[in-house]
Amino acid sequence: MPPKKKEEDGGAHAGARWGRVKANLKMGVVGLPNVGKSSLFNLLTEQSAAAENFPFCTIDPNEARCSVPDQRFKWLCELYKPASRVPAMLQVTDIAGLIRGASEGAGLGNAFLSHIQSVDGIYHVIRAFESDEVIHVDDSVDPVRDLETIQSELCKKDLEYVQKQVEVFEKVGKGQKAKKLSESYLSAKAKVMDHLEKNLPALVASYSDAEIADFKAVAPALITTKPVVYLVNLSKKAFVRKKSKWLPKIAEWVRSRGGGTVIPFSVEYEQELWEAKDDEAARKKIIDDNEGAKSVLPRIIKVGYKELNLVYFFTCGEKEVRAWNIYGGSLAPQAAGTIHTDFERGFIKAEVVGFDDFKEHCGGKPTMANLKALGKHRQEGKAYTVKDGDIIEFRFNVSK
Questions:
Q1: Start and end of every TGS domain (predicted)?
Q2: Which of 86, 255, 298, 384 could be 322's S-S partner, Cβ–Cβ 3.0 to 4.6 Å?
């Protein structure tokens, strides 16, 4: 198995610096046809999108949301016993399979690539199992070749996009706009063009924020700057044994292209677990009979959420316990605005308690009394950066 990446570390991921600063960001499920994309999408989102055994079964992208697993949310719900329970949600898009030549219009061509441009992060599904029953678009299974195919097509599309954007920018930019072509922009452009021409991801952690900001002003929709989570679809047997001849090769390929999180999983095994979702005893038996192998879906969701640099805070009460998506680094007024625009417009202060403090000192009761007595209940102003897991009540006033 490849070494586990420390995706739990705090702070914005490098890929997030290239993306949109919003709370409603999306992960797109991408890969060649018949690698398990739509089946994974169905499992993640608990719905039934078409997942047949032939190329281009998915044409128009399917979109859905899946809840982000969190023991803190469950604990708060058990404590408050609210009428309404709303967990943090991750938006996921199932995108049609890509084939070689898509950047020149093969298969679904530019329509497919435009769908990838519209998402903010990528779940790149790679097939690493043999099966006579599941057609492979290239007639044989070779995950490294498939990775190269996808990367090449995305780089070609980005290169074409960058060239057109630069031409337009320089054409209409004579005069005032031309003066904005700073050295940092030119440096960033040269780096990205070089990486695209070599079929390498444009995402380079060493880029400065100034370089990224200048480049985004000209080419804001680069596919290869999006954060990627590589999901390796194994057979049930290989997943349970935690062994596959392809995993070291895939891990090396990812490392040589700038790194990223690689998560082995098995659609075959996940479907077996899913079918027993309503029978806890049957589900436990499946896990026990397969060397204790548990579902990887919760980790896939949490890592995708983290790669988008999303976090969430809680609001709690008898009527509702809710987790609110915000972009990492958001200030208190921005967080308040996710609840209602009036909360941000008339923001006065945020009354904040960290989850760990609340759990330790609430005395098993849904009250802030102990926290206030201990000084753990804080009043924060407009400059406060909301932290993941904060429990917040906003004070605001909107006058005419």
A1: 309-396
A2: 86
* 234 annotated to bind ligand: yes
- The pLDDT tens digits for 251-293 are 999 988 878 899 999 999 999 999 999 999 999 999 999 999 9
Domain that holds residue 50: 14-307
**Residue 39 assigned ligand-binding role:** yes
3-state SS assignment for residue 35: coil
Residue 320 structure tokens: 């509702």
pLDDT tens per residue, range 112-130: 677 888 899 999 999 998 8
What is 152-186 written as a DSSP string? HHHHHHHHHHHHHHHHHHHHH-TTTGGGG--HHHH
SS3 label, residue 237:
helix
- Whether residues 299 and 205 fall in one domain: yes
Residue 224: closest CA among 243, 199, 191:
199
Q: Using CA atoms, how far apart are residues 47 and 68, in angstroms rounded to an integer?
A: 16
**Could you report the per-residue pLDDT of 240-253, keeping only the tens digit for each?**
999 999 999 999 99
Q: Using pLDDT thresholds of 50, 70 and 90, give the confidence band for residue 176.
A: low
pTM higher than 0.90: no
Tell me: do 295 and 354 sit in the same domain. no
* pLDDT at 10 > cutoff 50: no
Predicted confidence (pLDDT) per residue in 126-164, tens digit:
999 887 666 666 667 899 999 988 888 888 888 888 777
**Predicted local distance difference test score (pLDDT) of residue 173:** 58
CA neighbor of 39 nearest in space, from 337, 267, 205, 265: 267
Is the domain of 97 the same as that of 161?
yes
Instruction: Provide the b/e sequence for 253-266 (b: ≥16 CB within 10 Å).
Output: bbeebbebbbbbbb
Residue 213: Cβ-neighbour burial (10 angstroms; 0-12, 13-18, 19+): middle
Residue 38 is assigned to a ligand binding site: yes
Query: How many Å apart are CA 213 and CA 98, to the nearest integer?
Result: 30
Q: Which residues, listed in sequence order, are joined to residue 220 by a DSSP beta bridge?
A: none
347 three-state secondary structure:
strand
Q: Distance of CA 143 to CAs 21, 38, 233, 237, 246, Å? A: 33, 18, 10, 18, 7
CA distance 99 to 160: 18
**Which sign, positive or negative, has the C-alpha torsion 336, 340, 343, 345?**
positive
pLDDT reading at 317 higher than 90? yes
Domain count, the chain: 2
**36 a known binding residue?**
yes
CA 263, 99, 24, 318 torsion-angle sign: negative
